[in-house]
Protein: Amino acid permease
Amino acid sequence: MTSLKLTRTLTLWPLIIMGLAYMTPLIVLGTFGIIAEASNGTVPMAFLITTFAMFFTANSYGIMARKYPIAGSAYTFATKSIDSRVGFMVGWTILLDYFFLPMVIWLIGAAYLGAQFPDVPQWLFLIGFVLLTTVINYIGVKTAAKLNSVLMIFQLTAMVIFVVLSLGEVYGNGGISSLFSTAPFFNESTTLAIVLAGSSIAAYAFLGFDAITTFTEETIEPEKTVPKAIMLCTLFAGVIYIAVGYTTQLVHPGTMFNDTDSAAFEIAAQIGGNLFASLFLAAMITAQFMSGLSAQASVSRLLFAMGRDGVLPKKVFGFLHPKYLTPIGGIILSALAATLALFFDVMQAASLINFGAFVAFIFVNMSVIFTYLKDQKQGIATGSKIRNLVFPAIGTFVTFYLMTKLDLNALTVGGIWFAIGLIYLVYLTKGFTKPTPALHFEES
Structure:
């Protein structure tokens, strides 16, 4: 019997579009208020620094994807390049992203609905998001998955209208000269520490560019196409974020908002009235709902793969619903975890997600360095020292520095999670006397 294989049909631009769709570009407006507050009114500068950091990390993802042209992740790269135990810990830390990403998405959605309907407690919207998404994922998401392309167009259309109306508002108040200003990048109270604090949160908007590597086995000439797609997707996203951050900061300088978590809704009403505010809200809620649906589906399937392989209790997580064939254990657990959002705000939750992302980025950069040094020792021809040593070293340093600027609660929770993972690894390997169990991230 012939084994089934993925078909190589994807080219460069479809990969880039899928990467951008996974990142949900509208999130630059969804998080505008908290980044403006953290960076003291210098959102485009915060995104500029983050784009700089992501450029070096994207370079490393591209190199590793060329080295291992299979569907994979930071876990795969660290395992193959450094050590299986290091890879396990990287994978364990990445679970923070998978596990709590739905929580952040639904928090943002609830904040924007709360801005439109202030008399309704936001926790009701949050619970509504969790329940509706959980029910849909429980019975399957094939129909919802087909809406991704339409959703992407809806998001970009709302974003373009937002930018045009912002420029029109600024031009109407101050003429052509008012469209050109350094204030969104520097102001009288700008300091590097403050801007970096904003950059550490802005990294949330880049989560997902590495998802392109999961399509490696379906890509034509993946050794060339995947690295190029990763770099271009990251740069395109950075340009979008900087441009939208600049125009939005122009129309609303400073950090004063009625509600920081839903600041863009307030600005939408300012520049386009109630009609556009309603359109913008619809785009934001739709984007957040579909992102939450996808995020919960991903984590549930990841937990299923881990349960099936015995890394987690098989009876709970390795079980599929007999009718719907969905991993109900992971779906229910992710829904319960999302209720923790009742005790977080958007900034704290996004910082928690970024802890796991930064660990992944650091070890992808380090994987390139380890791979290069191993190849050099074995006399294997490799690329330039600039791309394989200097760039990854810069990426490691900048990412680690951004991680130190995260919310203290996020660092504490992240550190505790890492410690739990280490103890669990010791238990699974009987004190490192047995092989390290595999985490199949590519299957999610």
